[in-house]
C-alpha cells in the first residue's frame, strides 16, 4: 500500500498540482475539440499554472539551500514519487509556466483549424517539463525526458509544413534517441551502484544517490553517459547536428520553444550530474570548457554563412549554449549564478525571436534572408522585439544577460585565466554581429521586388500585445535582477561547496 506525505510548508501538495494541472487542462481542451472556447480554456489553464508557479516562488525560502516543500509517495520500489524544490527549481518552474502561457497565445495566431489539439499537446508537454523540474527521482527524470521527446516529435510531425519535415523528424529522433539511451545508461549505472552498495536495494532518488561518492573509472563513465545524454538536447557542440535542420524544416516556433526555452538539459546538469559526480566533473571540466569555446566560434562563423533566418537562430542557440557551459563548468559560485540567469534569459529571448520569425513567416511565407527586407515599416514592434531579444542574448546593458554574462566571464578568469575568457568574449562579440546582421537584413534592408508592402499584413492587437509583453519582461528583468540572484544564491553556493569551491 502506498504511503503519501509532504512537508507541511504549503496548504496543499503544490508540486503535484503543478504537474497535474496542465494534464487537466489538456483533457478539457481535448474534450472541447474544435469548439470556439477550446482555445480560451487552454489559455486559462496555462494562466492558472503560472499563478501556481508564482505561488511556488513566494513560498520558497531564498535564504535556504535546502530542498523544500517535499512530497513523497512510496510506489513500486525505485519508482517512488519524490518531489521537492529550491530557488533554482522555482526560477525554472516560473520560466516554464510563463513560456507555456506565451505559447498558448502565440499558437492560435497561426490560424490553424486544429489549434485546440495543438494547445492540448502543449499543455501535456508542460506537465512533463514540470515533472522533470520537480522530481528528485533520476529515473523519473529520464522517463519524462523520453515522453517529452515523443510529444515534441509529434508536434513536429503534425504541425510542420515544410516538404522536408520527414527528414527533419528523422534527424531529430536519431539524435534524441541516442541521447536518451546515454542518459538512461547513466541512470541505470547509478542505480546499480546504489544496489551494489546497499545489499541489492535499487534507488534512483537524489538523496540516496548522493551518498555513493562514485570515483575513478566508474564515476567518469557515469559522468560521460549523463553529460552526453543531456548535451544532445541542450544542445552543445558537437552534439547539435539535429537543431539546424529541425529549425529550418520543422515547426517554426512551438516545438523549438519547448525544446530550447526551458533549458532542461542545463537544469539536469545542475540538479543531478554536478552534485552526484563532483570528482568526475572536476576531472573533466577543462575538456568540457575547451569544447564549449570551440563551439562558440564554430557556431558563430557558421551563423554568418546562413541565408535562412531559422538556421541562423539555430546556430545562435549553439553558440550561446557554449557560453553558458563555460560558466557552468567553471565550477565557481558566481559562474553558477551567471549560468542559471543566462539560461533563463536565453530561454525567454530565443523564444521571443522564434515567435517574431513565426509571425514574419505567416505574412511572407519565407524565412530566406534574400527574400526578406523592409519589414520594419510594416511591423515595427515585431522588429523591436526581435532586436531587444538579440541584444539580451549577447548580454547588452539593460537586459538580464548583461549581469549574467559578466558573472560568467569574471568566474572564468578566476578559474581558467584571461586567455580563454577573452576568447569567449570575442565569440560573444561575433554573436552580436550575426544577430544584428539578421535584424538588418530582415527588417531594415531594402525590400525585394518579390515582397510587396501592400501584401504584408500589419500586426494584430494580440500580436502587438504579445510583442509588448516580451519586451517588457526582458527590460524589467534586466533592470531588476537582484531578487532573482537572491533566490538562487543559497542553493548554488551549496553546490559550489560540493564541488570544492568556496562561496
List keywords for this structure.
19 helices; 503 residues; 3% strand; mainly alpha
- Bin the helical content: over 70%
**Major beta sheet summary:** 3 strands, antiparallel
Tell me, rounded to a whole number, the average pLDDT.
87
| Gyration radius, in Å | 22 Å
Structural class based on helices, strands and sheet pairing: mainly alpha
User: How many domains is the backbone divided into?
Assistant: 2
Low-confidence stretches: 1-5
Across the major sheet, the strand order is 1-2-3
The N- and C-terminal alpha carbons lie at a distance of 44 Å
Morphology call: globular
The share of residues in extended strands comes to under 5%
**How many DSSP-defined strands?**
3
Report the total helices.
19
Order of helices and strands: EHHEEHHHHHHHHHHHHHHHHH
Commentary on this structure:
The chain has 503 residues and is mainly alpha-helical. It has two domains: 1-136; 137-498, no CATH class. It has 19 helices and three strands. It has helices at residues 14-32, 38-59, 87-106, 115-134, 138-159, 165-197, 206-209, 216-233, 242-249, 254-260, 264-276, 278-304, 309-328, 333-364, 380-393, 400-416, 418-444, 461-479, 482-498; strands at residues 4-6, 68-73, 81-85. Strands 1-2-3 form a three-stranded antiparallel sheet. Strand 2 (68-73) and strand 3 form a beta hairpin. Helix 3 (87-106) runs antiparallel to helix 4, helix 5 (138-159) packs antiparallel against helix 6 (165-197) and helix 10 runs antiparallel to helix 14 (333-364). The longest helix is centred in the middle third of the chain and has 33 residues, at 165-197. The protein is globular, with a radius of gyration of 22 Å. The relative contact order is 0.10. The model is unreliable at 1-5 (pLDDT under 50).
